[in-house]
Amino acid sequence: MICPETAGTPLCPSNWPQDTLDLREEHSDLFRISNTMSHLELTGWYWGSLTSIEARQILNHTTEGTFLIRDSSNPEYLLTLSVKTSSGPAHLRIEYNEGRFGFDSVVLAKPKLRNFEDVVDLVQYYVSVSRNVHNAHDQTIAPMTKDTVIHLKLTKPLYVTTPSLQHLCRIKINKSTKTIQELPLPTRLKEYLLEYPFHL
């Protein structure tokens, strides 16, 4: 919703009635989800409406740790991470709760799981943990299915198509620095880099 005092701004003053503030909170959720979907579209490893069967067939021919993000077939969830594990492809639902994204799991595993404001941040974190041999065992046993514990090892995204050279350069620059604004680059190029502030 747009406030009359701040036309074009989605935030309302804090002294507005409670029902208006609730709408502001809903907008915040919509913004976060929309932002995440925009980032996922740029990754190259978001496969959209791929089914679990199709994801399994694709991942069967890959190495352990290869992953992709797709739309969830369960209407209660927005997204699913499909990954090739040592025992074959597995699918982990991603839930959105209280403004943050995290892997769905049984209650016992929840304390080990971390949540993030963006799905790309979530995946990026588990990729970095998987690459860190010392911490990998403790922090990748988190997501659990009904019957088993899945050792979550994420090593390589599976791209729908080969990313553009510009996007690959953006990822490399983001790996090298967190201070994009301080780089001696044209404003337009900085905006391009900040459009996707991840290194995966």
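That was protein one. Protein two is written in the same sequence-then-structure order:
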Amino acid sequence: MALWNNPRWFDDKERQELLDDHIRATGKTRFGIREFEEEKKVDAVRIHFNRVAPKYDFMNSLLSFGIQHAWKRAAVRMLGVRRGDMVLDVCGGTGDLAILAARRTGPTGQVTIYDINYAMIQAGRHKIDPFPALAHIGYVQGDAERIAFPDDTFDCAMVGFGIRNLTHLKQGFAEMVRVLKPGGRFLCLEFSQPTNALFRSLYDFYSFNIMPALGQLLAGSAESYACLPETIRMFPLPEELAGMLAAIGLRNVRWSSMTNGISVAHVGVKR
């Protein structure tokens, strides 16, 4: 018997109801299976990440068996960060993607971790601040739906495992595209639906039996580690996301599925 409620994967119609137009029309949205007033989701997300921040990196590595680090390395390679680039890491949290990008930009570049949650930023600083080779990583606390930078600022904009927590998904992506220079490069790394049905059933069992149990045992919150896989079931599938990205101003959109589709990296170029 599942230790937590195991929601089914959303169908096409239900996924559309989690997008900006429907949310603004109804004033309702979700964070996991819980429904909120549109303006209250940001507080629910803040409380959630305040709770998980102290053990975020440890739990992510444990629950993914370390595979998340391979996903992130592969995604940053796809983005094609170059020496001297200005890079924005949206929902950058504890900085894993930013560190990978900073090693590629070198000290002549600049990487900015941009996250609304102060606790998440602080939880990753021990990986960055003591190291002179990463001195070109900076921090900005801000809302990803209203990015506090001018148009055409960055060579690269990336988001990893964070965009699905926004209230208005399309607006967040549009803001990332806005701050990119023409010809700038975009990356979204997110969880998705496993492609093999048998593997998907095992993944579901793990997500709603093992993950919450470990979350309770090691981080003191089963709910937090059930909420994360709940949000994945509502996120656009790769083809849907590619169409959305093309519609907001990206060309050459392509994606790569990893580990049977658990993780998918989309890249594109600003028109």
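The radius of gyration is 18 Å. Keep this in mind for the problem set.
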